[in-house]
Amino acid sequence: MKRVLIVHHSSKISGAEKSLIDYIEIACRLKFHNFRFHFVCPRGDLYTKLCYYDVVLDTLPLKRLKRTKNILKLARDVIHIGFINAKMYYFLLKNKIDLVHANTSTSACYSILAVKLLNIPFIWHVRDIRESYL
Predict the structure, then answer these.
(1) Would you tell me how many other CB atoms lie within 10 Å of the CB of residue 106?
(2) Contact of 24 with 17, CB cutoff 8 Å
(3) pLDDT in tens, 53-73
């Protein structure tokens, strides 16, 4: 059985989260027997909604990252990202995860180092639209 970890940084439910819930609902309804879904997100509305599905839920203190020119806030965020990646590294090992799906760019920041160190396949779902990208 393949173990898939889905990482999401937010607990509120809006567009990206609704799409993710639809994905999980379809996967559970079709009973993908060869896959076991694990989910990491902060506690809140999304976590509560996912309790109704056949997924393994866990929580980490993920937060929304904001652009800043303040060097102290930037340093705090970099340290936080490193701390979460260290926790993610042990989570991936302990649960023998075969694939990681980051549902947003922020979620990718929280998992990319651990995934690359363990050489686990990684899906980065880019949902963020920034004016500077256009």
Answers:
(1) 20
(2) no
(3) 888 888 877 777 777 788 888
